[in-house]
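Please go through the sequence and fold tokens given here and tell me how the chain folds. Record follows.
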Amino acid sequence: MLALLVEAGRVSGLPAAPVDVGFGTHRHEGGHLSRACPLACLQLSTRVRNALRNDRKCTAKTVGDLLDLLWSHDLHEVRLMGARGVNEVHSALLAEGFSVPRRV
């Protein structure tokens, strides 16, 4: 029975499951990330997530906030982010289809 349900879900084309972001669930409209999605939807490394969460000046809570930081070139000012962290964020946003600035 479980195999039948899994196959029905796969054939339907619906997203497999809502994303658990720690404070309830979040569903993607049309299966794609939007600017309103929480940062947990990007699947960033623990190091980058901790840098964003622990920096007192960083108020990024959504993908849109992170895009704004990247475009304003303020992401590198996040404490403990570093060049590798900025590159990881850049790559993750680009992989999800967002328009990001060219790397310098």
Observations:
- The radius of gyration is 16 Å.
- The first strand starts at residue 19 and ends at 20.
- The helical segments are 2-12, 46-54, 63-71, 82-95.
- Residues 44 and 88 are 7 Å apart (CA to CA).
